[in-house]
Amino acid sequence: MNRKYLLLAGTAALTLTCAGCGDDAPAHGADALKDACGGVLDRATIKESSGDDKFDRLRDTSKSESHESAAKILLEEDHAAYVCEISIDDAPAGGDRGLSINYIPDGGHLFPENEKRSFSGYKAYALGGGMQATTESGSASVYFPCKVQDREDPVAVTGEIDNDLDLSVDTQFRVLFRSSNRMVELLKCTNAIDFPAPETMKPFPMIKD
């Protein structure tokens, strides 16, 4: 085979080898969010996130985190676990955190049961059935008791969502409740747990600082 054909063959082989070279780049923006966090980020959430100037730099940096792994850790290891972590490219250390969801076992109530008030930037909700919720500065939390078979005491679960995407309170709770419903299934809670529609939630009256 002469030199000309050797060069052509080499070029063809290189082209085939690199046909998918660009496919290894991590997804960003909408492509990253649509499958992140076990699919609990619905289209409305992604659309709302797209208004943030950091949107195109969002990337799913979850590794072994998932609802399945978090439920197993809560039950078997009795410590907090993340469901997902979405980072912002080039964010400074300790700076913008993108979005994350995590769960804590036996963390206790979010607020004393006899405390029925909200403050500036902080809202508290009683959801019934022993459940509670709070929201403040880019985060939302929900507390729910989960009765697990073969355990004498319920597992007191706290779910948290944190974000720097300026998501509305209703959107944060919608995502957190979708995720929490998944956790209820995986933890196999035997008690009825019904998370409300966020738009129907009424916070305790505001108390001035």
Task: Report on the architecture of this protein.
27% of the residues lie in helices and 23% in strands. It is globular, with a radius of gyration of 22 Å. The protein has 5 helices and 7 strands, in the order αααβαββββββα. By secondary structure, the chain is α+β, with helices and mostly antiparallel strands. A 7-stranded antiparallel beta sheet has the order 1-2-3-7-6-5-4. It has helices at 3-17, 29-33, 43-49, 67-76, 169-187; strands spanning 58-60, 81-88, 99-105, 122-128, 131-136, 139-146, 155-163.
Give a summary of the structure in a few sentences:
The protein is of the alpha+beta class. It has helices spanning 3-17, 29-33, 43-49, 67-76, 169-187; strands at residues 58-60, 81-88, 99-105, 122-128, 131-136, 139-146, 155-163.
Topology (elements, then pairings):
Layout: H1 3-17, H2 29-33, H3 43-49, E1 58-60, H4 67-76, E2 81-88, E3 99-105, E4 122-128, E5 131-136, E6 139-146, E7 155-163, H5 169-187
Antiparallel strand pairs: 1-2, 2-3, 3-7, 4-5, 5-6, 6-7
Helix pairs in contact: 4-5
Helix content: 25-40%
* Computed structural class: alpha+beta
Q: How is the biggest beta sheet arranged? A: 7 strands, antiparallel
User: What's the count of strands?
Assistant: 7
Mean pLDDT: 87
Shape: globular
Uncertain residue ranges: 1-22
Q: From the alpha carbons, calculate the radius of gyration and give it in angstroms.
A: 22 Å
Number of helices: 5
How do the helices and strands follow one another from N- to C-terminus?
A: HHHEHEEEEEEH
Q: Strands across the major sheet, in which order?
A: 1-2-3-7-6-5-4
Amino-to-carboxy terminus distance = 86 Å
- In what range is the share of β-strand residues? 15-25%
